[in-house]
Amino acid sequence: MTHSPRRAEEILQALRLKRPEDINLEAIAWLQGAKVDYREMDGCEACIHGRADVGRAIIAVNDAHGNLRRQRFSLAHELGHWEWHRGEHLFCAKEDIGGSKGRERGMSREKGANRFASELLMPEFMLKSALNDFRKFDMRTVRLLSDAFSVSKTAMAYRLVDLDFEPSLLASYSRGGLNWFKRSKSVGERWFLRRTLDPQSNAHDILHKGARDDISLSLMDADTWFDTEGADRYELAEQSFRVGDDEVMTLLVLKSEYMMAR
């Protein structure tokens, strides 16, 4: 059975879906020949067993944690595998689905499936329309859009940085230091994030002192975040929030044109 892989946006447009609430993943899976089974799983977040020759698959999604948005991203991730890696039997752990392994450089199978999931759940053409209602990029915008598209705040923030809504970065830190970061295309590549959190940053207080999540963007010197010569001459805005016992997520929005890519 011949199969030609399609981008997520092509699938959505073929189905004439125009609003985030129209994205019914179980229906999309069924139309793609995949049955979805939610069940308690040990050691992985989701898996797929499929036969390319007949175009049929079973996708199992872990429902033990009760996190519906995580289940939704996991299902979209497995649909990415079914679309692009059809016929392979794949078991995806938590770190594969939207986690650090899926955000490493290079286009691995897991990173490709994560990108497909992001584009399926947060398609650019829908986001552009939704963004018309917002004037600035901060965590309020991220939270409202994550609710509208039924995804996590981290997934939405990552997608908006990737689409270069504003010159920005999203970074994950734990007590051991920097886990990963995403830089928008308009940010100059010479700006390297510090490997550990500066005590002057809000993220440091949230992670190490139990401070509350930031309710708004805060202006601070760029050298608080960047270990790059000349960073002390510029300012940026930070907004940080806790995502686990040992992880804090930070949105950085740049304010100076001299920090942009040239």
Automatic annotation (TrEMBL):
InterPro entries recorded for this chain?
A: IrrE_HExxH, Rad_response_metalloprotease
**Domain (IrrE N-terminal-like): residue spans on this chain:** 53-160
Pfam families noted in UniProt: Peptidase_M78 (PF06114)
Q: Which PANTHER family match?
A: ANTITOXIN HIGA1 (PTHR43236), BLL7220 PROTEIN (PTHR43236:SF1)
- Name of the protein: IrrE N-terminal-like domain-containing protein
Q: Which organism is it from?
A: Sinisalibacter aestuarii
